[in-house]
Amino acid sequence: MRFVRRQLLHLVPVLFVVTFLSFLLINLLPGDPVITILGPGATQEHVTALRKELALDEPIPVRYVHWLKRIATGHLGQSYVNRQPVLEAIRQRLPTTLELMILAEAFALALAIPMGILAARRPNGIFDRVTTTTAFGLLAVPNFMLAVVLVYVFALHWHLLPAEGYTALTQNPFENLRHLVLPAVTLAAADVAVYVRLLRSEMVTTLQQDFITLARAKGLPDRRILLRHAFRPSTFSLVTVIGLNLGRLIGGAFIVEYIFALPGIGTLTVSSIFNRDYLVVQGTVVLIAVGYVLANFLVDVSYSFLDPRIKDVRALT
Amino acid sequence: MAGIGTAHLRAPEDALLRVEHLVVDFPVGRTGLSVQAVADVSFDVLAGETLGLVGESGCGKSTTGRAVVQSPPPTSGRVLLDGVDLCELRGEELRARRPDLQLILQDPISSLNPRRRVREIVAQPLRTWHRGDARGRAATVRSLLEAVGLDPGTTIDRRPHELSGGQCQRVGIARALALEPRMLICDEPVSALDVSVQGQVLNLLEDLKARYGLTIVFIAHDLAVVKSISDRVAVMYLGKLCEVGPVDTVYASPAHPYTDALLQSVPVPDPTVPPRPAPLAGELPSPLAPPSGCRFRTRCPRAQARCESEEPVMRAMGDGHFAACHFPLVVLPPVAGL
Amino acid sequence: MKRASPFPDVDPAGVPLLEVEGLSTRFRVPGGVVRAVEDVSFTLHAGRTLGIVGESGSGKTVLARSVMGLLPHNADRPGTIRYRGVDITGWSTRQLVGVRGPEMAMVFQDPMTSLNPYMRIGRQITESLRWHMGLTKAAAASRAVALLDEVGIPSARLRADSYPHQLSGGMRQRATIAIALACSPRLLFADEPTTALDVTVQAQILDLLAAEQREREMGMVLVSHDLGVVAGRSDDIVVMYAGRVVEHAPTRTLFAGLRMPYTQALLAAVPRLDRPSHSRAAVIPGRPPDPTAIDPACRFAPRCPYVQARCQAEEPPLVEAEPGHRYRCWYPVAGPLPRSAPAVSPARRG
Ligand SMILES: Nc1ncnc2c1ncn2[C@@H]1O[C@H](COP(=O)(O)OP(=O)(O)OP(=O)(O)O)[C@@H](O)[C@H]1O
Ligand SMILES: Nc1ncnc2c1ncn2[C@@H]1O[C@H](COP(=O)(O)OP(=O)(O)OP(=O)(O)O)[C@@H](O)[C@H]1O
Ligand code: SF4
Ligand SMILES: [Mg+2]
Ligand SMILES: [Mg+2]
Fold it and tell me: Looking at the partner chain, which of B261, B264, B269 has a beta carbon nearest the beta carbon of C270?
């Protein structure tokens, strides 16, 4: 329990730093939300009045403190552009992004785990060499290019899947999935490569351990040794990297959402930045920071489940 | 083992090294608990004597050896070298005493810097202490290597991984001898070596002792090895001393039940001696929660109620032979302990 | 349901449990070929113990693992292995799966690394019980507790739920013995089962192995670098040097009438309790040869006190000069060296 509290306390400074930096950055960008709202032909009085109304005439640190105060009472504010509460906007878009990321990670792991295990079974065997080459190939392709190719082949050429757009899961689960397959695969590609390499090299090390030889001496078949004895001890770096990778995944998701025109947090953030819609941007930044810290907290917790020795050490402290 | 007390110590002015009531605590994680790895141990070594320190893994042998050389210094107790308490010395004063007292470690290969050549390894203490000029140091290194039975011509430019375990241990000994110490503390110097090589290092230590008039504390878990090199032996169990005495006396008629069990557990390389059933059941208790009274009582075949309630104190069992046991295996002389 | 065994239910009389003939094991490594085991042959009958002794690196572990087929991919293993009369030399991993466990099992050198740290002790035992014997979960669990109890682990039911790091070294070694014994093997390889343990615990573990062997009529290969450990506990002894068998004889014959200078030197080098203090240790000068080198000479020649020209020109064959006693030497010795000093009676034995 002490461990959980420590991890959550960790979140506070991270949030301060991240939100302040993003606040600073976006405010330093040239452009003005008031112009966006009122259009280029607005009169000076209108502009000044709206400025005052939105409290945009104060210096940046003061506005940051205002924002912090508001957030402390649970209000993320509302969009300057369409007056939609930020929380509401996030609530609308979050499911799409979450679904996309979860699906992408599921694809990546579903492919990487069996491949990594099989490659480790005979290091430098044919399968190992083929997966290594494929992995490096996948890493070298940028995801927007992969997206173009996938769309061309599966959507435009074979008409198997839609090229863009979105259907909510609650509306039509099957259509929803069809719309997400190509974006998720695009997003997963680079991760597959990283995960395969990681798992393979850790498995190779694990398979040289004495306890694996003991498992073989017990007369267990290969399959069982790989899955029951060698897999779990080999997942540490994989789990760590999945957590750290979340940042990259979010960045990737933004691009992919944009390419496939998915109504997710990514498209929301990108359009808000273009509009200098500060409060919406701040809201998504908070969301991402919390998500990131929580994910890595889960990674830390999962170590105890992966290795009983860690659990005992934690129980002591 | 059980015991505390100082009845076994000899006259302070005779001893080169005299350790009194040595205690070493280690904190356990961040729990606030601590392990008493060495719990009130006293012993002494006369000049020119070899004291063997034996006991099972984890009983605190290495910790004792390290506390004597003050790295780290003990939690409490006195370590008198030539009558001067090292624990009282600070900074430069302590540093000035260090050349007199050298420690040799168990793992011959990893205790040497893998990137340095033999000549640099052996010369390093000489440089640190500004002994001699470059030419003089080179000559000293050569004669030290010869003294430990290495051919300077072939070994002086090698690095540790190019040497065998036995050769590495010789290099370690040469380095320890560089400052002409009065006393060597050898922490399991032959445990990592094969029997065929073990003898080479043991013989070397005996030769060096005769040649340089060294005083040695020899730590080991192998009773036969300890016997072959020691004058006196001290047996440890779970941070305490059980028995001390002249090595031939202790091995021929151990007074403490633990010493007896240790001796009986050693397999004899002779098929006509049938193996005896294991004399002890169970394993070393956790040093975090040592048994009350005599620490050996949970495994001791002779334990009685008194052993649980009262900690035994060192008593004389014979000439120069002491043990801390309420029910020792020897018949005590009528005027015990005087 | 128990898996079908490839071996007859009852062995024809006189068929040895294990026959190894001309077994060699070589590892392909970047610098050449490591000849870890060269041309080893021996026979072991049910209920008997074969001791294998030799210095570190002499090939003891590789030999035991070779017989069980537990070698890495870079190994070659010419030679013949007959188990209960069946030639299992060329068997695939899939075929050997039925042999390891119920037929042959192994106790490893280091109890700290040979248990799976991520699995409860009980699971590590029930796993093979369920796989090989087809026991139900409950039956396997209670059998596992019984086994742990049998090998002397106190409060076995509780301990079955422990992870390896929660046990002491001696208890871990007991647990690996329980794992090895789980499917009642007919042949047990004990690879230095006590090297990592203290002497008092070593005696307990060796007693335990001897008792289990007696009870099950099990054949045992007891590997050790300590002549003291094998002397009292094996029927025959194989002495290995640089991958080769250099002497092979019934235990008593070996100790009384050894012929090989290496065995003589090894025995003399063992520090003994019955020597007075400050008696000079007998040493073997030099060190074992590089396992990748091949030269037509006796491997022990550079260290042998009796070496002559022929030893450096021709490798001696392993000859059976007296029935049952083989050695590999051109100029055999007549027995152990006389004790340099009169034997002092060892510590008073209770
Ligand atoms: N730095 C340390 N921190 C905490 N505990 C320690 C530390 N060093 C040693 N200990 C503990 O102190 C006890 C004695 O350890 P020590 O190394 O002195 O034993 P030893 O007799 O030398 O054993 P071995 O034969 O295994 O070398 C052990 O219980 C050990 O776990
Ligand atoms: N996988 C491997 N690849 C290459 N060489 C190996 C391999 N395994 C063992 N060897 C070599 O084979 C030789 C015999 O090793 P082995 O482990 O059998 O010795 P041992 O007699 O068991 O020694 P110890 O007493 O140290 O356990 C050694 O020279 C070793 O370096
Ligand atoms: S008899 Fe008592 S005092 Fe002596 S060793 Fe046994 S328990 Fe300790
Ligand atoms: Mg130690
Ligand atoms: Mg081995």
Answer: B269
Within this chain, do residues C89 and C230 fall inside the same structural domain, yes or no?
A: yes
- Determine the residue among A2, A3, A6, A316 to mutate to test chain B binding: the one whose Cβ has the most chain B Cβ atoms within 10 Å: A316
Residue C284 beta carbon below 6 angstroms from any ligand 2 atom? no
Residue B206 touches partner C, C-beta closer than 8 Å: yes
Please check whether residues C62 and C205 belong to one and the same domain: yes
Average pLDDT by stretches of 10, chain B with 338 residues = 74 90 84 83 95 92 93 92 90 88 84 89 90 89 88 87 84 90 92 84 90 93 92 95 95 95 90 86 83 93 94 92 93 58
Mean pLDDT of A24-33: 76
> How many Cβ pairs closer than 8 A exist between chain A and C?
84
Written as six digits, the tokens of A267 are 């498209």
Share of chain A above pLDDT 70, in %: 97
pLDDT at C346: 35
pTM: 0.86
Interface test with B, best of C153, C174, C200, C348 (most B CBs within 10 A): C200
Q: Which of A69-78, B229-238, C301-310 has the lowest mean pLDDT?
A: A69-78
The pLDDT value given to residue B219: 95
C26 lies in the same domain as C168: yes
Q: Which of C99, C109, C116 to mutate to test the interface with A (most CBs of A within 10 A)?
A: C116
**What total of structural domains would you count in chain C?**
2
Domains defined for chain A, CATH in brackets = 2-72 (no CATH), 87-316 (1.10.3720.10)
Q: Is B30 on the interface with A (CB under 8 A)?
A: yes
Distance from CA of B221 to the nearest CA of A (A): 26
pLDDT range class, residue C347, cuts 50, 70, 90: very low
ipTM for the whole complex: 0.86
Rounded to an integer, the average pLDDT of A81-99 is: 86
Are C99 and C213 contained in the same domain? Answer: yes
Shortest Cα–Cα distance, B33 to chain A (Å): 10
Decide if A122 touches C, using CB distance below 8 A: yes
Instruction: Indicate yes or no: CB of B196 within 8 angstroms of CB of C284.
Output: yes
Q: What is the pLDDT of residue A252?
A: 86
C29 within a domain of the structure (yes/no): yes
Domains of chain B (ranges; CATH) run 12-266+280-323 (3.40.50.300)
* Res A191 pLDDT > 90: no
Ligand 1 in reach of B196 Cβ (< 6 A): no
What number is the average pLDDT over the span C51-68? 93
Amino acid (one-letter) located at C235:
D
Task: Take atom 30 of ligand 1 and give the residue whose Cα is closest.
Answer: B58
Q: What local confidence, expressed as pLDDT, does residue C53 receive?
A: 95
Nearest CA to ligand 1 atom 11: B37
Q: Is B269 on the interface with C (CB under 8 A)?
A: yes
Residue B333 Cα to ligand 3 midpoint, Å, equals 19
Question: Closest Cα to atom 16, ligand 1: which residue?
Answer: B60
**CB-CB under 8 Å, C117 with A307:** yes
Looking at residue B125, its amino acid is P
- Could you tell me if C224 and C276 lie in one domain? no
